Amino acid sequence: MNQEQVVVIGGGLAGLSCAVALADRGLKVTVLEAAPGLGGRASSWAEAATSDVVDIGPHIFHSEYHNMLTFLERLGTSRLITWQPGKVLTIASQPQALALEHAPLPAPMSLMPSIFKAPGLHLEDYLSMAPTALRGMEFGEEEVEQLDAISALDFLRQEGVSDNMIDWWWRFAAMVVTNVPLERCSAASLLRVHAQLSGYKDLHFGFGAVGLGELYTDQATKFIEDAGGRVLTSVKVASLLLDRRIDGVLLDDGTKLFAETTVSAVPPQQLFDMLPPSLATQAPFDQFDQFEPSPYISCYLWFDRDLETERFFAHKWSPRRLNYDFYDLCQIRHGWEGRPTVIASNIIYSHRAHGMTDEEIVRETVAEIAEFAPLAAQAKVVHADIHRIPMAIPCPTVGFERKRPPARSPVPGLVLAGDWTRTHMPCTMEGAVKSGFTAAEAVLAERGEHLQLAIPARTYDGIAGMVRSAAAGKRGVPPAPESQG
Ligand SMILES: Cc1cc2nc3c(=O)[nH]c(=O)nc-3n(C[C@H](O)[C@H](O)[C@H](O)COP(=O)(O)OP(=O)(O)OC[C@H]3O[C@@H](n4cnc5c(N)ncnc54)[C@H](O)[C@@H]3O)c2cc1C
Questions:
Q1: DSSP 218
Q2: Does residue 12 line the site of ligand 1, with CB under 6 A?
Q3: Is 41 touching ligand 1 by the criterion CB < 6 Å?
């Protein structure tokens, strides 16, 4: 019987980062990807009408994406990120836009001077935030269990945050950073990401200067193949082979592939569908069909002229809002400078747009761009591409954090990876790569090699770091934000 050393199911960021980390340790890895191309939810392709490379939807990086950036460094592409170090974000509020910029103050105060200029917020709204800001700095993984049981909206109301501040900031933050409305979001998921975003000095965003997939898919394939492994596309795994341990996989075409270790790097529902019936009823596997998808609709619009807009801007939450985040790709992509504007945007948790035709979505999206960049109202859209994505990330609804499984599964021979596994971070590219590195650690540990590959979150900077250390000291846990749980 031929036996592979390691089979990785799924050629997205989690699967490829795991396979690269194992190839780096000299292992021969076989990656199996069901789709014709690699990259999964962080993939890109040449758009048919324009030949421009577009992503599944625009993605954002930030300066604390240490696992993702280490992965790109290993592949030689980390320089292909367009960073925006000065301005964090422009919020297209009325009567004037609000630029969030870091002032030379310690974390978490550096953005406060900008936030104090927000139109429509008053002194009592800012004061109402103080207890939550403190809770955010004190937040540690040891609190996740308790906070995961309540919604973020209930939590903020309990903490005394004003309705005005909830509508101005928190409903927007919940949609853009957790991809789920505030009333459905786990308080643990939202507070964790709030702590991460406010705890670091000068945290800033970056965007792929090339297509997302161009950052890592071919490079990872070469890396894995150079170490003697294989990367196979259009190969779908039908089920896991179970005999006291997971012995490998059964492919859709009936072929059996035996492996010393099998890594699942697919989303939870797809893993559930692959489980042998005896496993599907056991914890934690019995929960894997309970993760609710957050759907997206991503819009790419090619205009006939320069809209003289910003590289990256966002709209505030409103119940009627379609798109939240907008990216001028001509200010992001290498070689696109000077072209008529191409805007990419995301309709997050897109249920409200599902009944709309592509033409209706384009019309509404142009109107939303024109609220910030008035030239869009006169401009012509020469081409539009609308991507409907049924599962962008699993929704971090109440109870989500407790369902996330660790990399080591209870069944020998099976290791789990993917943005949805227990990474102590939101479901993001950074989370996916961290899960890939953590899964590689688990594979190596099964072989007797004990290494740390995944990079934990840094201790917070400035006052945020001091408050977190004091809170951790009181609770008797180490001060790093993710050291428990
Ligand atoms: C539109 C959009 C915008 C986003 N924006 C951001 C952002 O701004 N910042 C950010 O950090 N993250 C963002 N994300 C999230 C990020 O893309 C994901 O968290 C990450 O790509 C998940 O990677 P993964 O490897 O865990 O899963 P996936 O990318 O889903 O990879 C799983 C792979 O497994 C394959 N597969 C499934 N079933 C099988 C099977 N039976 N056999 C073989 N292969 C199989 C799939 O085809 C897929 O390629 C966004 C996602 C989307 C869709």
A1: H
A2: yes
A3: yes
User: For the domain 3-39+216-290+400-446, what is the CATH code?
Assistant: 3.50.50.60
Q: Which atom of ligand 1 is nearest to the CA of 387?
A: 1
**Domain covering 43-85+204-211+293-394, topology:** Polyamine Oxidase; Chain A, domain 2 (3.90.660)
Q: Would you say the CB of residue 206 lies under 6 angstroms from ligand 1?
A: no
Contact by Cβ (8 Å): 142, 474: no
Please choose, from the candidates 385, 258, 411, 332, the residue with its C-alpha nearest in 3D space to the C-alpha of residue 84: 332
- Token readout for 354 is 């599902």
- Mean pLDDT per segment of 10 residues, for the chain of length 485 residues? 91 98 98 98 97 98 97 98 92 87 89 90 95 91 93 97 96 95 97 89 95 98 98 98 96 97 98 96 95 98 97 94 97 97 98 97 98 97 98 97 96 98 96 98 97 94 91 82 60
Atom of ligand 1 nearest to the CA of 392: 53
